């Protein structure tokens, strides 16, 4: 496992820093709601506080996946997930997860998870799990000539000096180290106008060896930066005045084993945008070129009319 540099105890303004990896593991450690059950198996998870109080989409995706995993035989790994974001979640409140067992076959299991707040679903997801099996193998090759992650600035280096709650949260509280291959879109859009984006990412600290945790954590991280491939060709950055962006759905396929505490290259592209919606697709590679996962997401992108 690659070494992880320990985070400083305080940020540039002297504020105590959190342990983002410990926070991530706490989010993924769902409780069983004291055995409560309806026609669903019930689990409860906490939320990570966010500027603006909206739950991060990757968090509720990962937690919904963990809830489904709790009802599936350990030998069966998740291989695909399809979810719809139905409502904005409140990061000040816990989330209840209801899991329905749709099917348990000889090789595959299917589960439906609803994430609830205030008695209504904020996310609806179906995931499929498979027993290990052999078969044909091929993959798209990883792009060549990508700079090493060590040569790229961290988000903390780019945003750490800004005294703004969103900048502080992105710089010091995210559980993943995100390093843009292209110029980042945090405050400006000065790079290529191609509908493409790429980042290196890994967890801030080492993770336990449980492969299920790594797959769930990858779902969490897969919601980072994906919609930036939609923003790039239009000269938009995250601080564009009046812009409104929201994830509408999220699909993910796991192809091979993965560790999120080792560097992963997340290559993203947008084939289309229209009707205030954009489609983004992503491929996630290990540093030595193995394609470990593919992702697709449609997002709402509204900008003020001239």
From TrEMBL:
Domain Acyl-CoA thioesterase 2 C-terminal: 189-300
InterPro entries, alphabetized: Acyl-CoA_hotdog (IPR042171), Acyl_CoA_thio (IPR003703), HotDog_dom_sf (IPR029069), TesB_ACOT8-like_N (IPR049449), TesB_C (IPR025652)
Membrane-spanning residues: none
Gene Ontology terms: biological process: acyl-CoA metabolic process; fatty acid catabolic process
Key word Hydrolase present: yes
Keywords assigned: Hydrolase, Lipid metabolism
Catalytic activity, reaction form: a fatty acyl-CoA + H2O = a fatty acid + CoA + H(+)
Domain Acyl-CoA thioesterase-like N-terminal HotDog: 51-130
CDD domains, sorted: Thioesterase_II_repeat1 (cd03444), Thioesterase_II_repeat2 (cd03445)
GO MF term (any one): fatty acyl-CoA hydrolase activity
UniProt keyword annotation of Nucleotidyltransferase present: no
Assembly notes: Homotetramer.
Similarity comment: Belongs to the C/M/P thioester hydrolase family.
Protein known as: Acyl-CoA thioesterase 2
